[in-house]
Structure to design on (595 residues):
């Protein structure tokens, strides 16, 4: 990356400069990225390393429920699980955060009070993001005032795909401001961005606008998170840090269901962004069913026999 | 004109309706009774057991939820397809009488599919204005160690009673004579039996059976084919961890040609009892 810090602070002064910068980013070698992700996915993680990997993955989970059928009772049950994922084993760590709709934030804040678990709320007309800016900002402020300390916003894909990058940028900046102290995660919805080049551009755009995390997907669009897309985003945060000194986190979300998948992502993080990112403050998994599989594998390592879905919660 | 090379079959495992090699990549030599080379069979590992149990669990809701009539039809179709392959099985099992008996056994069990509930279910007498009904339900995933003394008829006689009532099965085929089990799997794969209802693993029973016995997602264990009493005792102890139903190895050699009775079907049933108000 050749851009200096001075260049970057100034890059959004007009639509033309922003566009020039984003289109000046080097293109992604699609075949190379996919081959690299596939090669790293063949790494084998065993015994003690696997046990540590599983515990780290549990600590990185943003335990998520984003359904029209969510009720306060379901959110409280989710929070109980977030505190003590395995009630029979006190050595099992808590997850990083619970992720809910804005209307459930107050319930979740109550339910995780006294723990280190963050409450993340999706906002800005999730999942489509197709609402006027005023509505998106009000959505964000409501979630923050109810106590959410992390906000997952969606970018305006309609504007991004039609090339109106400055609109997207300014929207993220406005939401960033509405967040106040809360961390901002920017959802790129890579399943709708069509190319890896767009993923790289959207990553840089979000980071320039002040994102604390960049997140792959809402989980409502297929394909959701994939290894190559995450690879491209991890390269972006790595390059962004070397250009600006600011560290941005990455959150793949949607479609990560097994321990094997989670460990593959951890390998990818270690080999791409580096060990610094192997931390719940820098890397998260947006998932719901993943946690159960992590618990089953954890049990298998501890007891030496296979467990089954009868021994974890139905959620 | 050069002599034509025979196309030899690679015997693989049968997991989730597919025929994968062992995850471990291992195989072992299967010989005839006289010690002649017959084929290489896959040597299943712990992870193959794991995959087979996952496949069996996944198939359970669909198979147990199918109507008894439908299950009977599919079992009957298995017998039809076996009939078409009588010659092949006769060569493999080297015993035509055994093959015929095995086909007849499928048909016999197929007929039981929609009759078991009448025989084993009940309308219980009550002293109030409601019905009280007991109905048989399948237990779940059943691990089976197939009998070594009768590779086809014995296998059919332990497998058919498990799946006829809606259970799904993970079968450890007879260690020394696994080939008829894999050929049977080829029939099952083409007989409309949903993938995963029956999974067949070949290899060392002493290596794989403990993983099946200790697995918390297996609901019952059939030890008919375990010859070593010490191994049988260990397996039974492991199975107690999650209260699996266990069918112990037979005390005396079984006559597989004799009419089986319903004991084997009943061994893998739960009884669901419901009451229902009579209404007006």
């Amino acid at each position: 990356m050749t851009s200096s810090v001075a260049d970057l602070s100034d890059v959004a002064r007009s639509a033309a400069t922003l566009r020039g910068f984003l289109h000046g980013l080097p293109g992604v070698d699609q075949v190379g990225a996919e081959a690299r992700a596939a090669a790293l996915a063949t790494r084998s993680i065993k015994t003690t390393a696997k046990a540590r990997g599983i515990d780290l993955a549990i600590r990185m989970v943003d335990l998520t429920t984003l359904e029209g059928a969510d009720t306060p009772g379901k959110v409280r049950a989710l929070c109980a699980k977030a505190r003590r994922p395995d009630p029979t084993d006190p050595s099992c760590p808590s997850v990083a955060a619970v992720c809910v709709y804005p209307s459930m934030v107050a319930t979740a804040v109550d339910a995780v009070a006294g723990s280190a678990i963050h409450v993340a709320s999706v906002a800005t007309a999730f999942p489509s993001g197709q609402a006027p800016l005023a509505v998106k900002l009000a959505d964000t402020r409501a979630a923050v005032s109810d106590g959410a300390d992390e906000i997952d916003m969606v970018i305006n894909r309609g504007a991004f795909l039609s090339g109106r990058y400055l609109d997207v940028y300014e929207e993220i900046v406005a939401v960033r401001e509405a967040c106040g102290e809360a961390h901002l995660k920017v959802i790129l919805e890579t399943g709708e961005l069509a190319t890896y080049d767009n993923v790289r551009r959207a990553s840089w755009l979000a980071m320039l606008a002040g994102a604390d995390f960049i997140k792959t997907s809402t989980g409502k669009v297929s394909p959701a998170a994939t290894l190559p897309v995450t690879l491209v985003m991890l390269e972006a945060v790595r390059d962004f840090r070397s250009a600006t000194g600011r560290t941005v986190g990455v959150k793949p979300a949607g479609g990560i269901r097994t321990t094997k998948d989670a460990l593959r992502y951890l390998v990818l993080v270690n080999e791409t962004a580096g060990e610094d990112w192997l931390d719940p403050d820098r890397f998260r998994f947006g998932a719901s069913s993943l946690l159960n599989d992590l618990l089953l594998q954890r049990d298998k390592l501890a007891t030496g026999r296979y467990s089954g879905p009868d021994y974890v919660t139905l959620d | 004109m050069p002599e034509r090379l025979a196309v030899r079959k690679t015997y693989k495992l049968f997991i989730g309706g597919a025929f994968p090699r062992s995850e471990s990549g291992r195989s072992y030599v299967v010989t005839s009774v006289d010690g002649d080379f017959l084929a290489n069979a896959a040597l299943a590992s712990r992870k193959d057991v794991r995959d087979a149990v996952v496949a069996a669990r996944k198939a359970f809701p669909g198979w147990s939820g199918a109507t008894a009539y439908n299950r009977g039809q599919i079992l009957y179709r298995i017998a039809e397809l076996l009939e078409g392959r009588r010659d092949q099985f006769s060569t493999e099992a080297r015993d035509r009488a055994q093959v015929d008996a095995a086909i007849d056994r499928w048909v016999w069990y197929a007929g039981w599919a929609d009759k078991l509930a009448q025989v084993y279910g009940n309308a219980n007498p009550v002293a109030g204005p409601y019905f009280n009904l007991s109905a048989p339900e399948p237990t779940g995933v059943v691990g089976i160690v197939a009998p070594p003394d009768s590779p086809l008829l014995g296998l059919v006689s332990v497998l058919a009673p498990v799946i006829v009532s809606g259970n799904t099965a993970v079968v450890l085929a007879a260690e020394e004579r696994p080939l008829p089990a894999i050929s049977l799997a080829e029939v099952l794969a083409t007989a409309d039996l949903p993938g995963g209802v029956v999974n067949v693993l070949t290899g060392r029973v002493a290596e794989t059976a403990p993983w099946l016995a200790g697995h918390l997602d297996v609901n019952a264990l059939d030890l008919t084919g375990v010859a070593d009493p010490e191994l049988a005792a260990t397996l039974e102890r492991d199975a107690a961890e999650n209260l699996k139903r266990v069918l112990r190895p037979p005390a005396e050699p079984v006559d597989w040609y004799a009419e089986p009775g319903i004991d084997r079907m009943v061994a893998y049933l739960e009884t669901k009892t419901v009451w229902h108000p009579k209404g007006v």
Remarks:
- DSSP finds 13 helices and eight strands in chain A.
- The interface with chain B takes residues 304-311 of chain A (CB under 8 Å).
- Chain A has one domain: 5-311.
- Residues 178 and 307 of chain A are 46 Å apart (CA to CA).
